[in-house]
Amino acid sequence: MDTKEYITKFENKIKEVLCEIPSISIEKTKKDVRISPLFQADLIMEIFLNNKRKNIIVEIKTVGEPRYIRSAVQQLSSYLKKTIDAYGIIASPYISEKTGEICKEGNIGYIDLSGNCVLSFDTIYIEKKNYKSIACRKRDLKSLFSKKTTRLLRILLSRLEKIWTQTNLSNESNVSIGLTNRVIKRLYDLEYIDLDQNKKISLKNPTKLLDLWRENYSYLNNEVQGFYSPLSRKEFEERLIEYMSKRNIDKYAFTLFSGAELISPFVRTNQTFFYFSGDREKLTKENQIKPVTSGANVIILNPYDEGVFYGIQKVQKRNVVSNIQLYLDLYNYKGRGREQAEYLREKAIKF
Predict the structure, then answer these.
(1) Which of 11, 58, 62, 97 is at 20 to 30 A from 344, Cα to Cα?
(2) pLDDT, position 111
(3) DSSP code of 349?
(4) 95-117 mean pLDDT
(5) Whole-angstrom Cα distance, residue 120 to residue 263?
(6) CA separation for the pair 156, 178 (Å, rounded)
(7) Looking at the domain that runs over 219-349, which CATH code has it been given?
(8) Of 197, 179, 214, which is closest to residue 323 (Cα–Cα)?
């Protein structure tokens, strides 16, 4: 869709909303209007509200990420401070909750192609929410949380104080420089990272990034299989640790309640949960555990990506996944997983 099509669509969408108010009449509209040496409005709608003239100035952004919306809000606000009887609206195909807040903080209205909007001027207040987005938001988020992409997120969230270059991140995560570049650009547009004048990367908003990731993650991303051991949990885990040690196997790590019990215990369990990347048939046979469809007391997760092993902790001679991975696994786990996840976040992650 080109710019002219967007202008026409948003003109019709705004008219549709404003015409619901009997005291508003729309006199005329103008497109691509230079209204100052530094600012050109995509659309100006001249309206009358209770017989009083007002100009609605619309700035259209085809990309609705926070960085672009914030820039547009600042530019529009700067112009509006120098004029009277005018109100500004940011229009974009998709306005998220975050970008909507940026608009409201700047006293600027917003509207998207789905009809979600907040318009507030004079005696008028219009708010429409929760219309299903017709923009490709879910697909965009899916790409941000794909297998290899999450290696980059895990590193950034696990090492908050470190300043990175793209090359450093690419090498640390074993992710191609091309994919690293695309992910960094996306995170920058979403305002989760900062880039200094030398393009060095620092994490800006770890809390919201972790919140977003947990909503787009499930431990079921991994292949999960249940087994039964006749041993007690303590006996089985001691045997398992000895087995891993004797064979110099490091691609394993406790997770879920087994991991949380070693870091920030809150919920107790009789089951053992661990990641294992290796010969599962040999592991199960030599540790005398059998697959079951119910009553499992040993749960083995085959990792969806080797990145789950990044930042392994050694606790009581046991490998435990990083606190970030542990939180993600727990958050959407059945039963009391979320309680344990939030306790872990409060006591160990602390953001």
Answers:
(1) 97
(2) 96
(3) I
(4) 92
(5) 49
(6) 17
(7) 3.30.460
(8) 214
